[in-house]
Automatic annotation (TrEMBL):
Pfam families reported in the protein's UniProt record: GreA_GreB, Rnk_N
Keyword Transcription: no
Domain Transcription elongation factor GreA/GreB C-terminal intervals: 51-125
Superkingdom in the source lineage: Bacteria
Species whose genome carries this gene: Pseudomonas knackmussii (strain DSM 6978 / CCUG 54928 / LMG 23759 / B13)
Gene assigned in the entry: rnk
Domain Regulator of nucleoside diphosphate kinase N-terminal: 5-44
Range of residues in the leader sequence: none
Assigned keywords, A-Z: Kinase, Transferase
Keyword Glycoprotein: no
InterPro entries found in the cross-reference section: GreA/GreB_C_sf, Rnk_N, Tscrpt_elong_fac_GreA/B_C, Tscrpt_elong_fac_GreA/B_fam
Protein name: Nucleoside diphosphate kinase regulator
Record GO terms (molecular function): DNA binding; kinase activity; RNA polymerase binding
Phylogenetic placement of the source organism: Bacteria, Pseudomonadati, Pseudomonadota, Gammaproteobacteria, Pseudomonadales
């Protein structure tokens, strides 16, 4: 597995995600993976995050390098999952996408123990860039 790329997280997302982790009854591998990602993130204000960084509720276009298949995904909180392309922050791919910048690649643990390489191609919507974040 490759080393993890550097990531950026907004202070507001960090606070909300820490509250989410604190509220979980079952603190399993998914929560541990998210906690690890948050602990290594560079934290910035919501008005300081670059537009090419995945934040909560961002919509992204990414490619799985092995097959060349492209995906349109939206990173959401667990209670917002439902509908095509919505990925929970507690899903392995959701945790891996958080804070990633356009052009960076991540290893994505797929079902069956296989690891896929996912490259972030574009952010089609980022709440902070659109000025649409709730304080």
């Amino acid at each position: 597995m490759t080393t993890s790329p550097s990531i950026t997280v907004t202070r507001l997302d960090l606070q909300r995600l820490e509250r989410l982790l604190d509220s979980l009854e079952d603190f399993g591998p998914a929560a541990e993976a998210l906690e690890t990602e948050l602990s290594r993130a560079q934290v910035v204000g919501h008005d300081e995050v670059p537009p090419g960084v995945v934040t909560m509720n961002s919509s992204v276009r990414c490619r799985e390098e092995g097959s060349g298949k492209e995906y349109q995904l939206t990173l959401v909180y667990p209670d917002q999952v439902g509908g095509e392309g919505k990925v929970s922050i507690l899903a392995p791919v959701g945790t891996a996408l958080l804070g990633l910048s356009v052009g960076q690649s991540i290893d994505w643990p797929a079902p069956g123990g296989k690891t896929l390489k996912l490259t972030l191609l574009d952010i089609t919507y980022q709440p902070e860039a659109a000025g649409e974040y709730a304080l």
